Amino acid sequence: MSRWEELIKNIQQDVKLFLFILGVFCLFRIGFITVLNSYISEATTLKDIFLALYYGIRISLKSAGLVALTSFAFCTILTLFIKKDKVKHVRYILGSVYIAILSLLFYARIPYYEQFHMGFNQLLFNTFNDDVTAIFHTLVQEYNLPIRLVMTGLTGLFLSQALKALLRTKTFELPRFSTWYKNIAFRVSLLVLIYYIVIFVRFGGSMTYAYNIDWENSGVTKDEFLNEAILDDVQALYRAYTLHERVTASTGLDMDPGRMVEYGNYLAGHQVDSQNVDDFLKKEAQGTKIKKPQHVFLIIGESYANWPLLPQYKDLNIANGIRNIISKEDAAYVPTFLPNGMSTISGIMGITTGLAEANLYLTYLPESYKEPYSTALAPQMKNLGYKPRFWYAGPTSWERVKDFTLAQGFEEFYGMGDIESQSGNVWGCDDKYLFKAVAAGIDDPRPTFDVIMNISNHAPYTVDLEKEGFDQDSVIRGLPDKLKEDKELIKKLGHFWYADKVMAEFIEEMKQKYPDSLFLIVGDHADRLNIQLNPSLYERYAIPFIVYGKGITKDIFPKQVSGSHINVAPTLLELLSPQGSVYHSLGNSLTRGNDIGFNYGLWVTHDSIGRIGNESAESVTGTQPEEPPDLALIQKDIDARRAMSWWRVKNGKNMNAKE
């Protein structure tokens, strides 16, 4: 037998192993759903179950691919150089070991879910810091460990024998052609086919990253149990490891605990006789600035940078929707605004908790799930009579965003699985379907506060722009000559245009239907798209902050204001809270003239921007500021707010307590 024939024969054996293991994953998934079917919510339909099974198969392509790839490396490739008698049993042994592990994980996952209402997660790693003897006795007494081990052995033995029988079945002989070039053409075609199959498996049943599925975007149904069932045990373990690494890396700041009271007094603006962090963050409202609206909408725009709103980029025509809103008399616009961090989840954390970026992954830290932080926006809006709800166009499993926002006081959460949509990608549904769902959900007579996070202005950029009416010529005319042929850039700009368009349409629709509504619009981060090769710090990192609605005026904010995500909550609360009412915030309201914005690495004022720790600064407008920024004061402000955020998350409310 030639090496080519040996190679193809062994590849067929690898395919058998792959398909068998994939079948095992599907079998265990069905078993998991069947055994724990009582956890399926009453609102779940048969469609949701089939959707979970479909996405489960897709994600398990990757898990099955792991063992197939290992088999290919240690069996198929080795047989080309070593006599096959020495390695012929390796594939079966490899498959049997994998099956034994999967069987053990299956029987372990059932009680694990009953205890934690999740598949395997980062809590697994707590075992290494716990009383192992006590855990062992608990497993034996409460979870029938001996019986589960017996079941694991029997299941593994049965499946291993089935695998052995499958591997003994015949392989197909490849056809031989009369001419050499036909043989070459056939072999090349076969290798190309194998390559595309590998890509299909790598991206979880897709040929591109745009529709790739992994543990972070697999929560596609409206049932949390089914979302967990989508993950096979290998993917759940990978999630556990990833989350553990994130939490381990989330160590925070290098700061001086002895200065906490000093920081607190600075933030309070006066001496506070307390050791409670919250007492230093307490503020009294100056009085409502507008008549209380029935509905408040806070829209966080994915990658919605400020630079397209600047006058010099007006001819690009990609931000005309929000630009038109800014021009209205009942709109106020702050162009010197910074995101909380460099990612979407950093922005969400900053806006919903009111805490500054302090190198802590709040969505995975236990303190975030004990109770809402005193500075959290949702509970304080609830105190004003609003029903706080969070809408996200993506999967609920992403960054634990659903669990986190609910833990921080939102009464309801709606994700991709709750939204009827006809198009989208790996990150979620297209924005128009998100806004359509929000609009349909405003029938509640109770005043509502809706935070809306869209996703379309994000790679892999899959919106059908032509169908949505994108006029690329109007954009091309505004581009420098050297960029007019850059189709990839034009597509990205087109997605900014789409996000801007549907956002503005939703705002005007709600304004017309509910005339007293209040809208706040802010980007989650910038630094993803620029048409300048080396943009200034301001054009690269700044995001817009816009307030629009009945009673808002152009001068509702002082002229020299700046801010960041931690200033969103206090600004909204000052607009709506009665005089003298108490609220908590780390940042100051823009209505009170807050003049410093900052994040993980930058600061901004109304006329300057710079990097934290750097003595130099850049002008926001391009002209020299009348007065240089007070870098010492800026650093003092940043240190105090970041330190207070860090302490509250890591050590709790008591300034005397330390981990």
Folded structure, characterized:
The chain is of the alpha/beta class and about 650 residues long. About 45% of the residues lie in helices and about 10% in strands. It contains 20 helices and 16 strands. It has an eight-stranded mixed sheet, sandwiched between helices. A four-stranded antiparallel sheet has the order 13-14-15-16, with no helix packed on it. The longest helix has about 35 residues, at about 5-35. The protein is globular, with a radius of gyration of 28 Å. The relative contact order is 0.12. The model has no long low-confidence stretch (mean pLDDT about 90).
Which structural traits does this protein have?
659 residues, alpha/beta, eight-stranded mixed beta sheet, four-stranded antiparallel beta sheet, globular
CA radius of gyration: 28 Å
Continuous helix count: 20
- In whole angstroms, how far apart are the ends? 67 Å
**Which class best fits the helix and strand makeup?**
alpha/beta
Strand content: 5-15%
Strand order of the largest sheet: 5-4-8-2-9-10-3-11
Rounded average pLDDT: 90
How many strand units?
16
Largest sheet: 8 strands, mixed
Helix content: 40-55%
Task: List strands and helices in order, with pairings.
Elements: H1 3-35, H2 46-76, H3 90-116, H4 132-142, H5 145-167, H6 180-202, H7 224-230, H8 233-249, H9 260-268, H10 277-280, E1 282-284, E2 295-301, H11 320-326, E3 331-338, H12 344-353, H13 377-383, E4 387-392, H14 401-407, E5 412-414, E6 424-425, E7 428-429, H15 431-440, E8 448-453, H16 472-476, H17 487-513, E9 518-523, H18 537-541, E10 543-549, E11 563-564, H19 568-576, E12 582-584, E13 597-598, E14 602-604, E15 608-611, E16 618-619, H20 631-651
Helix pairs in contact: 1-2, 1-3, 1-5, 2-3, 2-7, 3-5, 9-20, 11-17, 15-17
